[in-house]
From TrEMBL:
Organism lineage string: Eukaryota, Metazoa, Ecdysozoa, Nematoda, Chromadorea
The protein's name in its UniProt record: Transmembrane protein 184B
Species the sequence originates in: Panagrolaimus superbus
Listed GO CC annotations: membrane
Compartments reported by the entry: Membrane
Keywords: Membrane, Transmembrane, Transmembrane helix
């Protein structure tokens, strides 16, 4: 892969073989997740939980289809426009996962009733929690976990727009680590932001893992974390390889570079994501199954559930994807007026009890 490639030679990422493999896994992932999303909309018995689940599930079609399109239009920097959509939705999913955990546990006030006053654990250098030794869980601790994920929701779209702007003015190129280019600064901010979001999720998990146990938090946490964070570090590693001779640019027959190393590295990232989303779709199907919500209808005596039409499914989907709750939550968590205030939640829950077998 280190030898120079000319546009007259075979370029794997532009080949029909690569497009075929990526397309097969992409459409298989779309079918699996599309059916699962439909099932949740069909048995929409607990909107307070299922709207977050559906938002999480949409990461598969967004990631897979976006990456496939990037391969189909494989040329210098075009993929950046597609990936900007993926970057924005990525942040949306992290927030949705944490919010789903809040719903499982009955909201902020119920969580605080369970953990308030207990010592923070674990406390060690390995988990970067040594500074929390001797401290107890408080509303400020819980608020920090939420802020850590919300900042990623804000940073991601801002940096995506900034990336497009820098690319237009010729100051951004993937894999270009020069100090006069924007890539190194964007990458630095992304690394800080995504690490803080991961740290916030980790702290929340350690604080609530016992009361979250009936909902199989480990499977859900690892699945969501793998899709988002491993793909991020995979892309980062490929970008580093793109800065070396391990990944070569594409030249025309006159020796002029037509596709840069950064674009080639991003192409391999998109190709791998197309394949990985197939396995992610399977994992998410087990992690966020619909059986508990179907059982809710059966227990209530409605074997067929409520009447479902395309209009009702469309209405449920529209309500699910409305992002206004993120802005409301951001105001609640960042505004100084609410720092000591515990938010109460009293959702209308059709599914009152989940068992571990329901997922």
């Amino acid at each position: 892969m280190s030898a120079n490639i000319t546009s007259d030679q075979y370029v794997f990422l532009k080949s029909g073989f690569a497009h075929g493999i990526a397309g097969f896994f992409t459409w298989a992932a779309l079918f699996i997740t599309g059916h699962q999303i439909y099932q949740h909309l069909r048995w929409y018995s607990c909107p307070s939980e299922q709207r977050w689940i559906i938002r999480i599930l949409f990461i598969v079609p967004v990631y897979a289809f976006d990456s496939w399109l990037s391969l189909l239009f494989f040329t210098n920097d075009v993929y950046v426009y597609f990936n900007s959509i993926r970057d924005c939705y990525e942040a949306f999913v992290i927030y949705s996962f944490l919010s789903l955990c809040y719903e499982y546990l009955g909201g902020e006030s119920n969580i605080m009733a369970e953990i308030r006053g207990k010592p923070i654990r674990p406390v060690s250098y390995a988990t970067l929690t040594c500074c929390l030794a001797g401290k107890q869980y408080t509303i400020e601790f819980l608020r920090f976990c939420k802020k850590a994920t919300l900042q990623f929701c804000l940073i991601k779209p801002i940096m995506a727009v900034l990336t497009l702007f820098l690319m237009v003015i010729g100051k951004y190129e993937d894999g270009n680590w020069s100090l006069d280019q924007g890539y190194i600064y964007v990458t630095f901010v992304y690394n800080i932001s995504i690490s803080l979001a991961l740290y916030g999720l980790f702290l929340f998990y350690t604080a609530t893992k016992d009361i979250l146990h009936p909902y199989k938090p480990v499977l859900k946490f690892l699945t969501v974390k793998s899709v988002i964070f491993l793909s991020f570090w995979q892309g980062f590693l490929l970008a580093v390889l793109g800065a070396t001779s391990a990944i070569a640019p594409v030249y025309d027959k006159l020796g002029n570079e037509v596709i840069g190393r950064g674009t080639v590295a991003a192409g391999y990232q998109n190709f791998l994501i197309c394949i990985e989303m197939f396995f992610a779709a399977i994992a998410l199907r087990f992690a966020f199954g619909v059986s508990a919500y179907i059982d809710a209808h059966t227990v209530s005596g409605g074997d067929e559930g409520r009447p479902v039409t395309l209009q009702s499914i469309s209405s449920s989907l529209k309500e699910t994807m409305n992002p206004k709750d993120i802005m409301q939550d951001a105001i609640h968590n960042f505004h100084p007026q609410y720092q000591q205030y515990t938010q109460h939640s009293n959702p209308a829950r059709s599914v009152s009890v989940h068992t571990a077998s329901g997922f």
